[in-house]
Amino acid sequence: MSGSHPLVEISMGIEAFASEWLHCDRISSYLARMVSHNRTDSLLYANLLSSALNELLETAFAHHGPQGDFSCRISRAGEADVIELDLPCDEGAMAFYSEASRRLKRPDVADLYQSALFAPGGVDPHLGLLEVAVDYRARISIVTEGGNRLKLAAEIALEGAAA
Amino acid sequence: MTIDRSYQASFNENNQEFVISGKLRPRSEDEIKPLHDALSAALAQVRGTFYLNVKRLARLNNVAFRVIAGLVSQVSGKRTDLRIEVITSSVMGWSTRKFLPLARRLPNVTVNEYDKDFYPGQSFLEDGGFIPILRNQTRLTWRHERKLLARHGLAPGMSMADICCGIGDFAVLVQKEFKPANILALDHSRTSLDYARKVAADFAIADIEYVYGDASEMVIEDNQFDFVTCRHSLQIFDRPELILKELFRICKPGGRVYITNEKNSHCLGEPRGESIQWTYTEVAKLFADFRMDVELGPKSRRYLADAGFEDIRVDSFMVTNLDGDPQDFADMIQAWENVYAGEMARDRGDTPEFIERFRRGFQDHIYAALHPKGYAGWPIWAASARKPA
Fold this sequence. Notes:
Chain A has helices spanning about 15, 20-35, 40-60, 90-105, 110-120, 125-135, 160, and strands spanning about 5-15, 70-75, 80-90, 140-145, 150-155. By secondary structure, chain A is of the alpha+beta class.
């Protein structure tokens, strides 16, 4: 995203990331705490940011290509923080994110989120992204790179919500 | 695969309250089947109102939310006579908005944001009008505490937390005098924190983080700080042992926790000593009626020992009208009178006659403080102890 400056980045092979579910929680908790220290209320901010970041990481954990580098970067753009996940994608993952992108652009995205939140059966795989977009009012962009990589970015302004 | 069991769940049948705390981010519903079964069993046996307490649940993903929401929806639909109250906390930030959609969908489910219940009488202290009292008090006690803090273990370069930091002035004074590496200052009053942040911004003070939180269950990792302070605060909680447990938890092994408290009935002055003594004995009773123990000071040793600390050190000092400008002391007493007699006694329903006599003791204390041959005192107990390594 333009106008932002990087704060912290963590990278590893996607296989390493996807080998352990707890990575989502550990990475989201750690990075959120790291970047929140100079926010108005660092603990509250970190708690909110961790929740949003964890949903994005859980989505990436479930939907990615089999091999390649994975990175999670957080940059600051004034009041907002920008989370960028860079991950390898195969055909199935591309199809998933393509559908996600379509849903996120719909004008009734808030209704979609509510429906997914309480839908019977298994968890809707798009629920995390919908939540971040609706509940955290994030601007989410999904961009493919070269047909086998994808960048998922979420710009989130939590400062007011956390003060 | 590692399964994270960092949540706790318990059901109290007496008050029909199911408490979930810690962190709930499972990969699958199966991982939290014990929680599902326990909540399901609890819901099956309650009548009237069921309390689902998630105020100390720090993390929750959608997998876990749907398990909880699914059970609540299922029972809510079948048993329209049952009221389900979800108790959330403003400290966590996310929990109220996460559970509100559930209340919007289900007519017999409500969401209430807890925070006041644990702080009886705290509204008196959280009111912005209390800021002048706190500021003046810190100025008066600092003359004594700055001489004591090194003996209690505070040294440059330490990582420090000031819990129940109020308006943050103690943290600022410590930073200037003792140069800790950093200070995390936590309080439950947004008014006080706003003031603290404004002061920090005005004076370009860095390295102090002012954060909103509940001292009885902080969103802070274990073993974080070399020196943890909690001043004049255990005495205004009805369950100080819960706060001490948390102070112990966030303190590093080998680090120290430092607390100060009063024994209000021992405030003294001459002349007019009798009237002064009567009023401060009544102050202690008044606070007790609001479930606060302003007589806690000499009990510090016991509380620290019971919390598992070692190497306990206790000092006491008397803030007096001779410490500096007697008017500062007098101003503090006037502020006490305004809140204790003007608000708390009135709210307790005391008679005008009682309040008049109650006020007279404060005025006599001011008289003693400003009298050219008078003496007025306010005793404080400062205690610290080490967390076993």
